[in-house]
Amino acid sequence: MGQVNEAAGIYCPDGRCGACLHEEAPAEEAERDLERPPNLLSKERAIPTAWIDGVAALDRMRSPTHVPRHRWQLFLADCNEFMLSSQNWAERAARLGWNALTLFGCHRIRPLEHLGNAGLLWVINGGKLVELYRDWAVIERVGDLSRHVHHRRSPRAENMALPWSGAQFSTPRPLLGSGRR
Known about the structure:
By secondary structure, the protein is α+β, with helices and mostly antiparallel strands. It is built from six helices and seven strands; from the N terminus they run ββαααααβαββββ.
C-alpha cells in the first residue's frame, strides 16, 4: 500500500509519489477516512515521521528547567493541535518547506528568553494558527484576538535544539576562573 520516502522523511499513503504531493485521494479512500477515529495521527497524512515521533516524545517529557510548567503545557497543547488539526497545518507546513527547527526549535538553554529565534509552535503560546505561508504565519492571540505575524527565519543551529532531542535545556557550565568566592 504506502511507502516511506526515507530521503524526505515523508510517508506516502498510496505509494504513488513518495513525497505525497499528488492530487485528491480516490473517493473510496475518502470514505474509509470517515470511518477512522478523528484523533488518529498517522502515516495517512504527509507529515514527516520525525515530527510525529518528536511530538509524541514531548508528551512523555517533564517541563524543562527554564520553562514554567504552565507554559510547557501550552506548548504541548499547541504542538498537538498543530499535528492533529482539521486544517492539516503539519502537512501544509511540510509542503511549504518548514522544517523541524523552524516549527519546534528553541534556544537550547533558555527557550523563553529567545522567542525571536524560536520556532512557530513556541510563539503560538495558546493562540490559534490561522494562516500559513512559505515564509510566514499568522497567529490569533488568546486574550484580545489580535493577529501576530511570525516570520520564518533560518535559525542558527548551534544555538537551537529540538525539545525532544535531549541536547537542550542544559545548565550552562561556568567559565574557568569566573566563579565567585
